[in-house]
Automatic annotation (TrEMBL):
One of its GO terms (cellular component) is cell division site. Residues 84-152 form the POTRA domain. PROSITE patterns: POTRA (PS51779). It is found in: Cell inner membrane; Membrane. Belongs to the FtsQ/DivIB family. FtsQ subfamily. Essential cell division protein. This is Cell division protein FtsQ. It is a single-pass type II membrane protein. GO terms for biological process: cell septum assembly; FtsZ-dependent cytokinesis. It comes from Pseudothioclava arenosa. It holds the Pfam family FtsQ_DivIB_C. Signal peptide: none annotated.
Length: 299
C-alpha cells in the first residue's frame, strides 16, 4: 500500500490588533490632560488623605488636650524669659496724685511678662483721668515700663452747684477744689455752660487789662453771653457776639470819662448801639434831688 505524505499545514488567520485606544482609555487620557485634574490628583488627593488622617488622629480629646497643654507650656516658657520681664514702672511728668492714680490702674503686678501688659488698654485708662492730657508708654530694655505723662494745666475755676472745678484752656475738667482759696491765682467763672465757653472767657480776661484787679468773676447768662462781675456790686452785661469789642469800648470810655468810677450797678452793653446804665439807689436819689432842685430854680 503506497504511503502518501501529509498535506502541508494551513496557516490560521490571526486578527490584527487595532492600534487606536479604546473609548474609555481615550476619555481617561483626555481627562488627565486637564490641569485641574492633574493638580487635584497630585496635590489635592494627598492633602485630603493627610487631613483625613490628622482629623482622625485629633479626634481623640486626650490627644488634643495634650497638644494644647504642650503649646501653652512652650509659650509660657518663652514669654517669661528674663528678656521679656518688666520689673520697674517709671512715671515722668506726673504730680504725686496722678502718679498714684496711674500706679493703681496698672493691669498687672510687677514683675510681669511684657506679653501680659496691654499698653494700648493701659494708655486708654490713663488718658481717661481728668488731669491727664496725653500719655506715652514704652517698654525699655532692662525691664522698665516708662510712662511720660502730659498733665492738663488748670487756667480757670468754674463754680457749679456741686462745687468748684478747675478747667484747662479747652474747658476740660482737671480736678476739684474745696474752695477758691486753694487756687486764688486763677480767675473764676460761673453759670450753666460756662465750661463750654472757656476760650471766650480767657479772651475777655486778656482784654480786660487794667480792669483785672476789680474783676470778681465772669458769669455765663443763659448759655449765650457773659456778665463781668466787678467789685462794689457792679456788673458789665456783655452782648452775645463781639463781647471783646464791647469790653474794649468800655475801657476806652473809662479812660476818657472815668466811666467805671461812677456809682452804678449795671452797665448794659447787650445793645451795642444803645448802651444803658443802671444807677445805684444812692446815685438815683442824688440824681432826683439834683433834678428837683434844678427844676425849682427855673423861672
Amino acid at each position: 500500500m503506497p504511503l502518501h505524505a501529509d498535506p502541508a499545514p494551513r496557516h490560521v488567520a490571526v486578527p490584527r490588533r487595532d492600534p487606536a485606544p479604546s473609548r474609555l482609555a481615550y476619555k481617561l487620557n483626555r481627562l488627565w490632560l486637564r490641569p485641574a485634574v492633574r493638580v487635584t490628583t497630585r496635590i489635592g488627593v494627598p492633602v485630603f488623605l493627610v487631613v483625613l488622617g490628622l482629623g482622625a488622629w485629633l479626634g481623640d480629646a486626650d490627644r488634643r488636650a495634650a497638644i494644647v497643654g504642650k503649646y501653652d507650656q512652650i509659650r509660657e516658657r518663652i514669654e517669661h524669659q528674663p528678656a521679656f520681664m518688666v520689673s520697674l514702672l517709671k512715671i515722668e511728668g506726673a504730680s504725686p496724685e496722678v502718679d498714684a492714680a496711674i500706679r493703681a490702674l496698672a493691669p498687672v503686678d510687677l514683675p510681669a511678662s511684657s506679653f501680659d501688659i496691654d499698653l494700648a488698654a493701659y494708655r486708654h485708662q490713663i488718658t481717661r483721668l481728668d488731669a491727664v492730657a496725653d500719655a506715652r508708654l514704652v517698654i525699655r530694655s532692662g525691664g522698665t515700663l516708662e510712662i511720660a505723662v502730659t498733665e492738663r494745666e488748670p487756667v480757670i475755676l468754674w463754680r457749679t452747684h456741686a462745687g468748684i472745678e478747675m478747667l484747662d484752656a479747652t474747658g476740660h475738667r482737671v480736678a476739684s477744689v474745696v474752695s477758691r482759696d486753694v487756687r486764688a491765682d486763677l480767675p473764676l467763672i460761673a453759670g450753666e455752660g460756662a465750661d463750654r465757653a472757656v476760650p471766650e472767657a480767657l479772651s475777655l480776661l486778656k482784654a480786660a487789662g487794667p480792669l483785672l484787679p476789680r474783676i470778681r468773676g465772669l458769669q455765663r447768662m443763659g448759655e449765650r453771653r457773659w456778665d463781668i462781675v466787678l467789685d462794689r456790686e457792679q456788673r458789665l452785661m456783655l452782648p452775645e457776639t463781639d463781647a471783646v469789642r464791647a469790653l474794649d469800648r468800655v475801657l476806652a470810655l473809662d479812660a476818657a470819662e472815668d466811666l467805671l468810677a461812677r456809682d452804678f450797678t449795671h452797665l448794659d452793653l447787650r445793645n451795642t448801639d444803645r448802651p444803658t446804665i443802671r444807677l445805684s439807689e444812692h446815685a438815683l436819689a442824688q440824681f432826683r434831688l439834683i433834678s428837683s432842685a434844678a427844676s425849682e430854680t427855673k423861672p
